[in-house]
Specification:
The protein is of the alpha/beta class. The protein has helices at about 15-20, 30-45, 75-85, 105-110, 120-135, 160-165, 175, 180-200; strands at about 25, 45-50, 90-95, 115, 140-145, 150-155, 210-215, 220-225. The longest helix has 19 residues, at about 180-200. About 40% of the residues are buried. This is HesA/MoeB/ThiF family protein.
């Protein structure tokens, strides 16, 4: 199919065709999550559940790819679905217009092949880790703040967040350092590449490892938790 021909030969024809059979859930449709949904849809992931109880505000316009002057005040998950209908009508996007919590988390996540973190709240990330472990679903974590970002892929039982957030806080560094437009796009692209590698079972993933990115000084390093 011409739509996906530029995926080749990074993906084989068989791998590309298989993408339509996968089901991915993106938690949060803001900075990280918006770019993530966009890339998944363009790759051809067949089913994407998008979860966000928030609506777009003017402060989102500097970095959130799904936000624009016309959809301020509108729910992020619903707007993600609307955009993906324009981007790729061959896939299914299901919006969940609520925040994930301990009561609805299992129902939202179950039945998916992988979970992608687009959150800005550390407690909710720990909730995702717990729920993914219960449901035996891999989980791709990403976080951003200022010039900095991080990515890891967590399989059930790894509990990698326990190592990353030993001094547990309610919020990440993005509240203090802000987020310019370039950092969510970069970190999201790495999250998506991790997701694809997990789904097609090819390449090396960041399991029990944390990729730490410092764009200010072009420092990319991997912390190993083995």
């Amino acid at each position: 199919m011409i739509r996906y021909e530029r995926n080749m030969s990074a993906l084989s024809k068989k791998e590309n065709e298989k993408l339509k059979d996968f089901s991915v859930v993106v938690i949060g449709c803001g900075g990280l999550g918006g770019y993530t949904v966009e890339m998944l849809a363009r790759l051809g992931i067949g089913h994407i559940t998008v979860v966000d109880g928030d609506s777009f505000s003017e402060s989102n316009l500097n970095r959130q790819i799904l936000s624009n002057n016309q959809n301020l005040g509108k729910n992020k998950a619903v707007e993600a679905k609307k955009r993906m209908e324009i981007v790729n009508e061959l896939i299914e996007v299901v919006p969940v217009t609520k925040f994930i919590d301990e009561y609805n988390g299992t129902d939202i996540l179950k039945g998916h092949d992988i979970v992608i973190d687009g959150l800005d709240n550390i407690d909710t990330r720990f909730l995702l880790q717990e729920k993914c472990e219960e449901l035996k679903i891999p989980f791709v974590h990403g976080a951003i703040g200022g010039w900095y970002g991080q990515v890891t892929t967590i399989f059930p039982g790894d509990r990698t967040l326990d190592f990353i957030y030993r001094n547990r806080r309610k919020e990440g560094i993005e509240k203090r350092f802000g987020n310019p437009s370039f950092i969510p796009a970069l970190v999201s692209s790495i999250q998506v590449s991790e997701t694809i590698k997990v789904l097609i079972k090819r390449g090396e993933i960041l399991r029990k490892k944390l990729l730490v990115i410092d764009l200010l000084y072009q420092d990319f390093k991997i912390i190993n938790f083995q």
